[in-house]
C-alpha cells in the first residue's frame, strides 16, 4: 500500500497476501471496497475519526462485521490498523 492513499486494489493485495499465508480466501470484494474507504476517511478534508485509536477500533470492527475473507478477518483488521498507525 505504497503512496499517500489507499484504494480497493491495495486492500485486495493485502487480503491476498494474508490469504496466501493463512489458507483463507476472499469472500466479498464489496466488503474489501468498503474497507478501503475506511482507511483514509475524510469529508471536505476533515478526518472522520477523532483519534487514531477510534479509527483503528472502527476498522477492526468493520473487518469482523463485513467478513471480507472466509477466515483471518482479525488479521486483516490488524494489518489495516498497522497501516493507519504508520501513516498517522
Notes on the protein architecture:
With 88 residues, this protein is mostly helical. The protein has a domain at 26-86. Helix content is 62%, strand content 5%. It has four helices and two strands. The protein has helices at residues 8-22, 29-39, 52-66, 73-86, and strands at residues 42-43, 46-47. A two-stranded antiparallel sheet has the order 1-2. A hairpin with a 2-residue loop joins strand 1 (42-43) and strand 2. The longest helix is centred in the N-terminal third of the chain and has 15 residues, at 8-22. The model has no long low-confidence stretch (mean pLDDT 92).
Give me some keywords for this one:
globular; two-stranded antiparallel sheet; mainly alpha; 88 residues
Amino acid at each position: 500500500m505504497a503512496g499517500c492513499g489507499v484504494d480497493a486494489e491495495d486492500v485486495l493485495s493485502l487480503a491476498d497476501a494474508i490469504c496466501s499465508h493463512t489458507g483463507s480466501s476472499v469472500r466479498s470484494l464489496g466488503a474489501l471496497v468498503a474497507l478501503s474507504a475506511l482507511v483514509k476517511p475524510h469529508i471536505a478534508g476533515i478526518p472522520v475519526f477523532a483519534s487514531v485509536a477510534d479509527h483503528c477500533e472502527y476498522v477492526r470492527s468493520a473487518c469482523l462485521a463485513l467478513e471480507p475473507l472466509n477466515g483471518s478477518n482479525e488479521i486483516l483488521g490488524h494489518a489495516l490498523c498497522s497501516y493507519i498507525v504508520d501513516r498517522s
